[in-house]
Design a protein that fits this description.
Layout lengths: L1 H10 L10 H21 L3 H27 L5 H32 L3
Helix pairs in contact: 1-2, 1-4, 2-3, 3-4
């Protein structure tokens, strides 16, 4: 949720010409990360949770691309984008850790 807050705070400074572009896309994609994790957690099976984590990873990649685009367009300075990219990497590590944990559990669940 910290990433979502950071994204909202940073996009406030985007030009008004981006109100229907990156200013709205970036927060929506960031919210989608947390929403997919929450929805997957609310499902009844590990398989569904893993599927929603996959959706969240896709949204995370979308956010990363949009942050880099925002930096290229000079909507974010180097410091702002580095902070966001660091948060994106941290969220990615957490999600990958969850997936690795479940893959390990899946491989041991087949044992007699």
């Amino acid at each position: 949720m910290a990433l979502v807050k950071e994204i909202y705070l940073q996009t406030r400074g985007f030009p008004t010409t981006e109100v229907y572009g990156l200013t709205s896309q970036l927060p929506r994609a960031a919210v989608s990360i947390a929403s997919n994790i929450a929805e997957g957690h609310g499902r009844r099976s590990t398989g569904e949770f893993k599927q929603f984590l996959g959706h969240a990873r896709g949204s995370l990649a979308e956010v990363e691309t949009q942050v880099l685009t925002s930096q290229d367009l000079c909507y974010l300075n180097q410091e702002q984008s580095e902070k966001l990219l660091s948060s994106i990497a941290e969220v990615g590590r957490i999600m990958n850790g969850l997936l690795v944990l479940w893959i390990a559990e899946d491989s041991t669940s087949d044992l007699p």
